[in-house]
Each structure stands twice: as structure tokens, then as C-alpha cells.
């Protein structure tokens, strides 16, 4: 049951700007799970399920648009270097720290609210769904045109901007910051459309999370007991299913909303958990 819960938490929160790692740490504490090396590896490994959900939804783009893939890999480079350099430090001192997570959640929420208050997206950036999307055909046509627009913008993204997005993403090595939030806010600062940077964030998660998971499994595979692989499998499948639903939800949400609500949510979670601990 714990594997199902944690897998669901990972899938729901991975692509929302609220920190999946932070939520996994807090929920693990609520469930009374011991802070073992396996739990830390489990929290990282089930990200593979979330990765697979992106591949499942965007396979055509991934395997046919090489210019898009090159931009994604360019953005991944800063995170790879910084993540590799600080991997041991983060896992040993930060990954199990509730106070680090709570501080990052709260401060990240405050910054997100402030950012959205003063940020003004370009007039042609926030494209509202036209009236005809009430029909099935209208929704499919609108989604197709929006996706095509995002693909073109990513293909034309300069490598300099891609690297800057990767630097923003690297802030998420601190548990509770949120990889999605750092990437998305970074892209908005650089002038990208909201939907484009959200989808770029999905794609950037593939090499980023695959590398993090691969590195952890490489270093700790021998310490995982045979009976623990079943728990990993359950968490993986649950993360895959819920991540698909989460991605679809976020794409619908940003058609008419900014991220202020997520900022408020982060603050409320941090305060509520702090009061519960005290």
C-alpha cells in the first residue's frame, strides 16, 4: 500500500510546480516510513514511471523532431554537471531533511506568487481556447495546433536559452524547489510561451530523471534486496498512470490560469506540515 501511495504522489506531483521529491519526503514521514537508503533510492527510482508517461504521450515528437531533441539535450547539460557534482552531498544531507523541504516549498510558493503578480505574458502567448473547442473535433484541432506551435518554438529556441533553462532547472537539486517550477519560471523569464515551456519541461524531464535514476541505481543496486524490487515495480506502474493524468490536467489548466494557485498551495502545505510536526 505504501508503494501505491508514494507512486501516486510521484506521478501527480512530478510535472506540477510543487516538488515531487518534497512531497515524497513529507508523505513518507506521514506514513511513518524509516529514512533508509532504500527509501531514498525508491523515491528516485519510481521517477522512471513518470518518465515513461512523457515518452508515451510525446513519442512522435521525441523520435521524429531531432531539432527539438537537440535543444532538450543542451538544456540537460548544466543539470547533469551540477547534479553529478553535488549528488553525494544532496543525498546525504538534503534528501531526508524535512526542514529543507518545508523552507523550499514555502519560499518557492512566495516567489511564484510574486512572479505571477508582476509577470506579463506577451499578448500572443496566452492563447485562449476558442468557442468551438466545446466539440470533440474542435478540442482535437485546437490541441493539434497548440502542439504544433510549441514544437516550432522549441525548434527555434537558441542553444544559449536552452542552457539557461538547464541552469534554472539545476536549482531543483535542493529538495522542495521543484524541477518543474524552476524550469517553467526560467522559461517564462526568457520569454517563452507558457504552454511551450511547460511542454519543454516535460521533455527535459526525460534525460534529467533518467540520469538521476540511473546514477542512483548504479551506485546502490547491490544494496537493494530481491524482495524490494516488487515495491519498486508497484511504485513505477502507479507513477506512470498518475503522471499521464497529471500532464493532461496541467495542459488544460494553463489554458486559462497562471501558477498563483500552485504558489498558495505550496505555502499552505509547508505551514500545515510545520504545525503538524510542532
Terminal CA distance reads: 27 Å
Rough outline: globular
**SSE order:** HHHHHHHHHHHH
Query: Can you give the mean pLDDT?
Result: 83
Give the C-alpha Rg.
18 Å
Structural class by secondary-structure content: mainly alpha
Largest sheet: none
Query: Helical element count?
Result: 12
Which residues sit in consecutive blocks of at least 5 with pLDDT less than 50? 123-146
Task: Note the beta-strand portion.
Answer: under 5%
Compose a concise summary of this entry.
The chain is an all-alpha fold and 278 residues long. It has helices at residues 2-13, 20-30, 37-45, 47-64, 66-94, 98-118, 136-155, 159-170, 179-189, 194-220, 229-253, 260-277. Helix 5 runs parallel beside helix 8 (159-170).
Task: Explain what you see.
By secondary structure, the protein is mostly helical. It has one domain. It is built from twelve helices and no strands. α4 packs across α11 (229-253) and α7 packs across α10. The longest helix is centred in the N-terminal third of the chain and has 29 residues, at 66-94. It is globular. Mean pLDDT is 83; it is low at 123-146.
Write the topology of this structure.
Elements: H1 2-13, H2 20-30, H3 37-45, H4 47-64, H5 66-94, H6 98-118, H7 136-155, H8 159-170, H9 179-189, H10 194-220, H11 229-253, H12 260-277
Amino acid at each position: 500500500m505504501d508503494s501505491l501511495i508514494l507512486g501516486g504522489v510521484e506521478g501527480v506531483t512530478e510535472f506540477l510546480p510543487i516538488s515531487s521529491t518534497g512531497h515524497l519526503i513529507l508523505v513518507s514521514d506521514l506514513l511513518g516510513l524509516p529514512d533508509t537508503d532504500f527509501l531514498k533510492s525508491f523515491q528516485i527510482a519510481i521517477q522512471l514511471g513518470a518518465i515513461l508517461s512523457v515518452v508515451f504521450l510525446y513519442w512522435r515528437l521525441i523520435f521524429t523532431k531531432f531539432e527539438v531533441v537537440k535543444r532538450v539535450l543542451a538544456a540537460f547539460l548544466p543539470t547533469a554537471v551540477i547534479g553529478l557534482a553535488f549528488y553525494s552531498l544532496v543525498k546525504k544531507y538534503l534528501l531526508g531533511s524535512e526542514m529543507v523541504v518545508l523552507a523550499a516549498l514555502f519560499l518557492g510558493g512566495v516567489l511564484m506568487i510574486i512572479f505571477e503578480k508582476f509577470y506579463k505574458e506577451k499578448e500572443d502567448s496566452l492563447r485562449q481556447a476558442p468557442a468551438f473547442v466545446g466539440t470533440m473535433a474542435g478540442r482535437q484541432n485546437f490541441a493539434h495546433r497548440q502542439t504544433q506551435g510549441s514544437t516550432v518554438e522549441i525548434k527555434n529556441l537558441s542553444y544559449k536559452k536552452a542552457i539557461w533553462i538547464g541552469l534554472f532547472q539545476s536549482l531543483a537539486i535542493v529538495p522542495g524547489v521543484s524541477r518543474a517550477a524552476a524550469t517553467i519560471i526560467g522559461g517564462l523569464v526568457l520569454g517563452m510561451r507558457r504552454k511551450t515551456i511547460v511542454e519543454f519541461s516535460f521533455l527535459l524531464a526525460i534525460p534529467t530523471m533518467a540520469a538521476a535514476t540511473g546514477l542512483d541505481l548504479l551506485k546502490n543496486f547491490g544494496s537493494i534486496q530481491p524482495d524490494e524490487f516488487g515495491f519498486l515495480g508497484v511504485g513505477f506502474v502507479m507513477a506512470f498512470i498518475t503522471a499521464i493524468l497529471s500532464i493532461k490536467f496541467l495542459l488544460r489548466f494553463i489554458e486559462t490560469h497562471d501558477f498563483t494557485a500552485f504558489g498558495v498551495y505550496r505555502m499552505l502545505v509547508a505551514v500545515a506540515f510545520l504545525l503538524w510536526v510542532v
